[in-house]
Amino acid sequence: MPDILVVEDNEKERERLVRMCKQAHYSVLACASAAEAENALGVHTFRLAFLDIGLSDKSGSHVFSLARRSGKIAHVIIFTGNPSVHLKQRLLAEGAADYIIKGTPQARNEELLGRIRALIGESQEDVVEGIPLDQFLLRHIPEHSRGLFLSADNALPTCSTCGAAGYTVTFAQQAQLPPEVKGLVVCANCGHPFNPEVI
Questions:
Q1: The whole model's pTM is what?
Q2: Directed axis angle between helix 60-70 and helix 34-43, to 10°?
């Protein structure tokens, strides 16, 4: 489950926020539009979100209202280039945790990380124990069955949650009763399950 949602249509700024969060070991999901954010909120809950107001398709205020109604985001930091005092007062009054203007000292990585930690604490990253999926396929799955786990170009597909392409086969999810040993394939980055289960 991702810790942080980043909703930002400026690619450079979005990538900076994602990189900053990942380097601090938070799992993160990035969206470039309000529509992508709405889809993400239909699937996940988040501990925190960075939300730009000036999105290309709809106002970030729409996403903020949706987040408040759904209860899917614990804390929302408005991250915008709009210095409007009235907008800041309104969104803070409606429950935003902070209103940070891009390009100000408060928008630097160190300050943003400090704000994240103040709101949600350190990363709750779980260490996924197991073996990499590609090694598991080579050692334990017949060649004619490996295609079940691969995309059309015979590569591991990217995770639908975080976009990573690394998976772990873990056997720590349930009690094991040999000879029927069950495991689960999960994203090595965010822990999201990958179908099919390994049996």
A1: 0.63
A2: 10
